[in-house]
Amino acid sequence: MRLIGCHIEGYGKLTDTEYDFGEGITEFCEHNGFGKTTLASFIKAMFYGLPAVRNNTAEFNDRMHFYPFGGGKFGGNITFEKDGKQYRIERFFDRKSEKGDTVAVYENGKKTNKFGKDIGRGVFGLDKESFERTTFVTADAIDICATSGISAKLNNFVDNTDAENSFDTAKKRLESAKKKLRAERGDNDLITKKRAEIVELKGEIDNLETMERTLEGYYVELTDLNGQIRALEAKLESANAVNLSVERWARYEYLLARKAECEKQLDAFDIKYPYGLPTADELGDIKSRNQKTIKLGGQKTATADDGNRGKLDELARTFGSGVPDFETMRAVQNDIDEIKRLDTEMSATSRAPRSRFDELSQKFADGSPSASDISDGAEKAERLRTLDDQLKLRMNLVPAEVKPERKSAKPFLIFAAVAAVIALVGIGVLFVSAVAGGILLGLGVVALGADGFVYFKKNSAAAHPFIMSDDIVKLQEERQSLEKQLRELVAEYSCASENGVLFDFATLKKDCAEYAKLTAAADETTERVKQMQAASDALTQKTKAFFAGYGLDGDDLQDMHIRLLNGVTEYMTVHNAVASSDRESESIQNEIKAQCAAVAEILAAYKIPLWDDLSEQIETLDKAATEIARLKTEKDEVGAEADAFKTEHGLTEKPTEERIDTAALTEKLSELRRDAAVIDTRIADTENQVDLLDVKRAALATAEQTLETYISEHAVLTAAVESMIQAEQNLKDAYIAPVRDNFLVYAKAIENALGEKVSMDQDFRILFERNGEYRSDRHLGAGQRSICALCFRLALVDNMYKDEKPFIIMDDPFVHLDADHMEKTMQTVKELARDKQIVYFCCHDSRRIERASN
Amino acid sequence: MKLLHCADIHLGSKMEAKLPKDKADERKLEVRAAFDRMIDYAVKNGISVVLLAGDVFDGDRPLKRDKDYFYGAVRSHPDIDFLYLRGNHDVLQSYTEQGLDNLKTFSDEWTVYEYGDVAVWGIESVKSNATAMYAALKPDKTKKNIVMLHGQIGDANGVYKINLAKLRNKHIDYLALGHLHTFSDGAIDERGKYVYSGCLEGRGFDELGVKGFVELDITENGAEYVFKENSQRVINEIEVDISDTDDIYAACKKAKSKIACGKKDMLRITLVGDVGFELDGIERELEKMTARDCFFVTVKNNAVRKFDINAVKGDISLRGEYIRTVLENDGYTDEQKQRIISVGLKALGGREVE
């Protein structure tokens, strides 16, 4: 592989610059600031890119460092040859981020992607760090040891696989598994946890075993308690047997005693009733008769009604002089009715209408005309009517010259309307007030009639005008005289009217006649009222006197009659009831006597006297009979029971033992049973917990087995890791040794320049021998170390790149060498780099390779 | 007359199959349930005598709750006589209940219970009677004789050892035995048979197969009996050769295809054969895959890892170098070498190392 050239569009201070790289050594010896490091960085950046600018760090990285000072495009291209093909990488950078970068690879002018995204790795097979350590040599302090990347590369050469991390990954997996089993630090691993679990389980098992031992104690305690309980139960059973025996004998004796008591009581009854007691039938008969007697007594009592008797006495006092019969009461009622009728008639007579009489009495208050006055007036009236006829006759012969004047009807109509209104109002008022309405209606009707009468009279008078002659005049004068006399007569009695004197006289004459008639009638009425009043008073006095005889007083005769009649009725009723009761009582008394006699007869058969209180005697006899029967039954039953009890329990003689008090034993037994129950519960509880013992033991066995497995697995993993490391070391020894050999070849070549004998171990650690002892390269001077580093890189390059050797960039790596070492080193470098392309940068002629003598 | 014969109930026993706690608790209850089922059978079939030929309880000091359960069951079936002969597990504290008329017990001397012409003899084995008991046993020839013992039959005398030869011609019709947990029977002589009823319910993979009790019918002709299956679950074991499988999936598939047990049963699969390192960890995978096939499945991997040393001899790689490094290390046993190589190859193969 060989670099051909590059074009820098813009990179640091370099812009639009072209460089060509020849075969062998291409040396750039320029003053500081020329851009040697920039060019070296550009070459590396073309293959591996630039790191992004990180905002959160103060690091001034290459992207920031080499951003073109004057701006513009940031990047360029590089052309190289590999495997006989020419490639060009064009890469331009964003100011900050890799995302903005553009990169393209061309193979013989055609774009290719054969190196992948990581172009440097694709071209060299190395990561950036490994590239820098092998082909990029600077004067910086360098770790000469191989990186894992270099190691992997070497492994791949021998393994021919792509799994460059296989060892690391495998070792990591094994160690990870190992750490899971046993952590290097802390206690978060399976073995530690399992051990802790085992410790805990053992603790739990210890506890449970302790409880199990306690359980033994409980069992013993329970057994002991059960023994005590059984012993006590036996004792109690024995005591109960004695007690039972005693109780049975006591029971037997009790039965005998009861039998004796029955006999004793029966004897007492025999003494009391030596002739025995009535039979049950007889007692039943006695009871029946007694019941009947009691019932009759009750009827008698009910019959002799004290209430009625008292009432009768009270009424008898009222009717001490005898009780009026109903005929008398009816006559009195008739009298009362007559009094009422008389009062009514008197009242009606007194209230008969007298208005005409009163009117005429008022009219003739000063006396009425005498009969002669009336007779004389009648003659004059007759003469007047004759004159009027004559005049009428004579006047009919005279022609009429003047038409009769018709009087207007209007005033009459108005008056009639007013009267009609009054009458109608009166009709309306009738619904409110009968009196006022009647007055108004009457007034209206009268006014309407008067209006009509006057109207027709006037018109009639006006219809007969006549023409007077002399004789007529005479006649008229006579008539006028007569009329005057008559008028004076009627005026004296206020009978004058517009109807003419004849009419007025006729009225007077009629009124006089009527007045005389009415006066006679009034006198007759007065007389008749007087008669009726006298009759009424007589009857009232008589009736009151009648009622007073029965203690009644007052003006209301009818009320007194009713009260008296009620009293009579009540008296009669009570009187009859008392009489009936007395009859029934007598009959009942006779029946009672008969019943008592029958009972006495029955009792006499047993020499038992009859008591006054038969009910009490019956009860006593009944009780005695019942008790005797009961006693006989009980005596028989108790006797039989005693015999049976004696037989059943084999009682022969009274036990000699005393009754034993078992209360204390029972209490003790209860106490023991309670204690046993407590222990029993404890046992159950403890057993429940101890039951876990098997589970815990099994868990412990499992845990211990698991721990054993873990430990075994850990041992296996430890052995696996060690074997893996050993295998890799073996690989290194077998296949990576050439790197060391090459290094030693290079080191030998520059041994003179170094002034030390240098060696390398299997882990690529460079050692040098001084005073017979190998020392680390850290003890070498910086210049010596830079030579060693160069040798190591050349050795790596020789082994890692079998087919094609890569170019080597030396960025003034020998600044630490003095002139003598520099001279020797440069000679060696020229020799060693004969088949390699080296791009060498320095800034001083003293470090130029070209000037080194061949 | 019909009787039931059972033994080795082992109430209170822990479960031997490394069951998870919940399943172990369930199994303990199932052991009780097996006893209940047997009693139910007796009740339904009008059987009034149950022979318990030892090891009713699992320990000398049975847990209170187990005793409460057992004696409760006896108490609640007063019409059934329980003839309880202690075995080697329930020697000390088993007879704690008193006042149970239907509980008939035995001692270190011959005890006989008679039911008509059927006589049930029994003796509990102790050192003092281990030899003498045979001479002391004198059943009536005219009766139907049942003898109860607990121990291993053989031709020697001793505690819990039953010298079958010495029981010959003792007019025994039926020798009801306890001690072995699997049903088995055989002849004592021309007249009698010996029978191990086995346990009522298997508890671990050392008690494989169907378990139950014996229904015994004593007739004029002698003793006739039949084994009655009673166990809730059957414990099975199968062996699967996975030599012909190249990966875990194929091996698991093959093992699953061999499973022949019910969903409620328990199974142990033992893997055998020569296998590659690819099958490391198959037991865990197989247990997961078969977990739903049975009540409980456990896998025991007895397969041997095969490895061809010649195959990596010329392998110039870290892998080859690793194998060579391990194999050449004399500090490891062959098994260790197998395991070290196994994990190393896993790591190099990009697989996680567990």
Tag the structure with descriptive keywords:
heterodimer; A: about 850 residues; alpha+beta; Rossmann fold; 6-stranded antiparallel beta sheet; 4-stranded parallel beta sheet; 23 helices; 13 strands; about 65% helix; elongated; B: about 350 residues; alpha/beta; Purple Acid Phosphatase, chain A, domain 2; 6-stranded mixed beta sheet
Describe this structure in words.
The complex is a heterodimer of chains A (854) and B (354). With 854 residues, chain A is of the alpha+beta class. Among the domains of chain A are: 124 residues, Rossmann fold; 136 residues, no CATH class; 62 residues. Chain A is 66% helix and 8% strand. The radius of gyration of chain A is 87 Å and the shape is elongated. Chain B has two domains: 228 residues, Metallo-dependent phosphatases (Purple Acid Phosphatase, chain A, domain 2, 4-Layer Sandwich); 114 residues, no CATH class. Helices cover 24% and strands 27% of the residues of chain B. In chain B, the strands form five sheets. In chain B, strands 4-3-2-1-13-14 form a six-stranded mixed beta sheet, covered by helices on one side. The interface between A and B is large, with 42 and 32 residues.
How is this fold's topology laid out?
The complex is a heterodimer of chains A (854) and B (354).
Chain A: E1 2-11, E2 14-20, E3 25-29, H1 36-48, H2 62-65, E4 75-82, E5 85-92, E6 102-107, E7 110-112, H3 119-124, H4 128-135, E8 136-138, H5 148-159, H6 166-181, H7 190-272, H8 280-303, H9 306-318, H10 326-350, H11 355-363, H12 371-397, H13 410-430, H14 434-461, H15 470-492, H16 501-548, H17 557-604, H18 614-648, H19 663-690, H20 692-749, H21 751-754, E9 757-760, E10 766-770, E11 773-776, H22 782-800, E12 808-811, H23 819-832, E13 838-842
Parallel strand pairs in A: 3-13, 8-12, 12-13
Antiparallel strand pairs in A: 1-2, 1-4, 4-5, 5-6, 6-7, 9-10, 10-11
Helix pairs in contact in A: 5-20, 6-20, 7-18, 7-19, 7-20, 8-17, 8-18, 9-17, 10-16, 10-17, 11-16, 12-15, 12-16, 13-14, 15-16, 16-17, 20-22
Chain B: E1 2-6, H1 21-44, E2 49-53, H2 64-75, E3 81-85, E4 103-105, E5 111-115, E6 118-122, H3 133-136, E7 144-150, E8 152-154, E9 161-163, E10 174-178, E11 184-187, E12 193-196, E13 212-219, E14 222-229, E15 235-241, H4 248-258, E16 266-272, E17 274-275, H5 282-290, E18 296-301, E19 304-305, H6 318-327, H7 334-348
Parallel strand pairs in B: 1-2, 2-3, 3-4, 6-7, 7-10, 8-9, 10-12, 15-16, 16-18, 17-19
Antiparallel strand pairs in B: 1-13, 5-6, 11-12, 13-14
Helix pairs in contact in B: 4-5, 6-7
